[in-house]
Amino acid sequence: MLYDVTIDGKHYRLDLNGAEGAWSCRLDGKDFDVDAILARPDVLSLRIGNQAYEVKSERVANDLYVWVGSRRFAVEVRDPRSLRGRSRAGDEHGPKKIVAPMPGKVVRLLAGEGDEVEAGAGVAVVEAMKMQNEIKSPKKGSIRKILVSEGAAVSAGDVLAIVE
Amino acid sequence: MFKKVLIANRGEIAVRVLRACHEMGIAAVVVYSEVDRGALHVRKADEAYPIGPAAASESYLAIGKILDVAKRSGADAIHPGYGFLSENAKFAQACADAGVKFIGPTASAMDAMGSKTRARQAMERAGVPFVPGTSRGVESYREAEQVAAKVGYPVMLKAAAGGGGKGMRLVHSADQLKSSLEAARSEAERSFGDSEVYIEKAIVNPRHIEMQVLADEHGNTVYLGERECSLQRRHQKVLEEAPSPIVDVDMRRRMGEVAVRVAQSASYTNAGTVEFLVDEQKNFYFLEMNTRLQVEHPVTELITGLDLVHLQIRIAAGEKLPFKQDDVRIRGNAMECRIYAEDPDNNYFPSPGKITLLQEPSGPGIRLDGGMYEGWTVPIDYDPLLAKLIGYGTNREQAIARLARALDEYFVGGIKTNISLFRRILRDADFRAARLDTGFLDRMLKRNEANPDDSNATEVAAIAAGVFATLSSTASGAGNSAAVSGSTGSAEKAASNWKGASRTEALH
Question: Is B292 noted as a catalytic residue in this protein?
Answer without folding.
Answer: yes
